Amino acid sequence: MAQNKFNRDYSLQATVLVDTGAGVSVVTNKFLASVKHQTRYIAERNFLAANGKPIGNNLFATFNIQVSNFSSNNRGASNEGLLTIKDALIINDDNVPVSHILLGTPELSRTGAIIDFEVGEVSFRSPALKVDFENLF
């Protein structure tokens, strides 16, 4: 569950794909229309899709998502279950469902993500939380 942290009455179900082969995190502009976010332009960063075609227009977004069904040793913290996605490439692609977010290697590295296939969970160091594969977000 992704939730706009700035308005707890609003929530949007999201599917998060953890992709260790992606050089950047990706979000659609339609998803961003539903959550509070900040954008910035970063020149001279070009990304290609798996088919070799360029994607994005050098606009990147930072936004928060509230993770549901997580476990944490920091229960009761003001940012409990809150994951900040930084510099996700904004794409305008009608073939990508609005509610899909891709977490690429830079974001996984920044958050200290550990993917444990045996246990079936993803752990993040910052923020400290664990999420089952089946209930990822």
Summarize the structure.
With 137 residues, the protein is mainly beta. It is 7% helix and 40% strand.
Describe the structure.
Residues 1-10 have low confidence and may be disordered. β12 and β13 (121-124) form a beta hairpin. The chain has 137 residues and is mainly β. It has helices at 29-32, 105-110, and strands spanning 2-3, 11-12, 15-18, 26-28, 37-41, 47-48, 54-55, 59-66, 70-71, 82-91, 100-103, 114-116, 121-124, 129-132.
Keywords, separated by commas or semicolons:
single chain; mainly beta; globular; 2 helices; 137 residues; 4-stranded antiparallel β-sheet; 6-stranded mixed β-sheet
Provide the fold topology:
Layout: E1 2-3, E2 11-12, E3 15-18, E4 26-28, H1 29-32, E5 37-41, E6 47-48, E7 54-55, E8 59-66, E9 70-71, E10 82-91, E11 100-103, H2 105-110, E12 114-116, E13 121-124, E14 129-132
Parallel strand pairs: 3-11, 4-10
Antiparallel strand pairs: 1-2, 4-11, 5-8, 6-7, 8-10, 9-14, 12-13, 13-14
Classify the helix fraction into a percent range. under 10%
Beta-strand content estimate? 35-45%
Number of helices: 2
How far from one another are the termini? 5 Å
Can you count the beta strands? 14
Poorly predicted regions are 1-10
**How many strands, what sense, and barrel or not for the largest sheet?**
6 strands, mixed
The pLDDT mean sits at 79
Following the backbone from N to C, one meets helices and strands in this order, namely EEEEHEEEEEEEHEEE
Structural class: mainly beta
Rg over CA atoms, rounded to whole Å, is 15 Å
Strand order of the largest sheet: 3-11-4-10-8-5
Overall, the morphology is globular
